[in-house]
């Protein structure tokens, strides 16, 4: 009888221990994460680093399971919409790729303020309202890839793109067209082939996000750069709200650290810029620098064309967003 009692007690203890372990494991929230860039591509690496850091600090609390990046998982322009519908839980994307979900997203690249300032002046609060209405939530900017530049196979000597066919994304479509170019959209992996076979004469891209292969076909960078190549972490609203406060706080703490270190004025950002300038020069890329009136025209057309497009596409919300995100109108 004593032996039977001992066996039963042992079995009960084992069951309780197993249940406790299972319960503890079940408390770990697993988020399905995707990137709007191919895995390993320069502009996608910061999100991969973010995921790794969250998983490191979030052991036992929250983990992100990477499901891959676009275009392998589908069009990058559909990632935001699919995430909002529940296909994914969290994503790393530039605003250009979730404009299909939220037409007001481009305001993030046109801002005159740091993200710390946007969090204090109410700009991101209003932007967040618009995101939540779409079933998503804006968590933060995890990386700034520097300004956008025009990269060319052959040089130009003035701010006039007439006669050039350029690969674009929504970021600089209005700008390049206003400068006289014809344009076509393509995915990131297609850029090399389009340049190699002469289908396009150049392309717009972020300063720090240049793929190493492109040095073979892109020989000139046009300065100055325009806008902000910001890359953001967004999430499905319902899934985010289902997380424990501890899990949400941990994810946000990592995102805000990444956000702060990549402010354009930070030492980290300046170091990235110096290294990229050196890398581009070492790979034979030359710089076309507009100065004086040419530079003023380049920057003026970039700004005015972008805001004109933004206000036309967002007549109800655009004026308020412009007030919140710019220092002067």
From TrEMBL:
Keyword Cell inner membrane recorded: no
GO biological process: transmembrane transport
Coiled coil: none
Classification via Gene3D superfamilies: Bacterial extracellular solute-binding protein, family 7
Source organism: Phyllobacterium phragmitis
Family designation: Belongs to the bacterial solute-binding protein 7 family.
Keyword set, alphabetical order: Signal, Transport
Leader sequence segment: 1-20
InterPro entries from the UniProt entry: DctP_fam, TRAP_DctP_sf
Protein name stated in the entry: ABC transporter substrate-binding protein
Record's keyword annotation contains Transport: yes
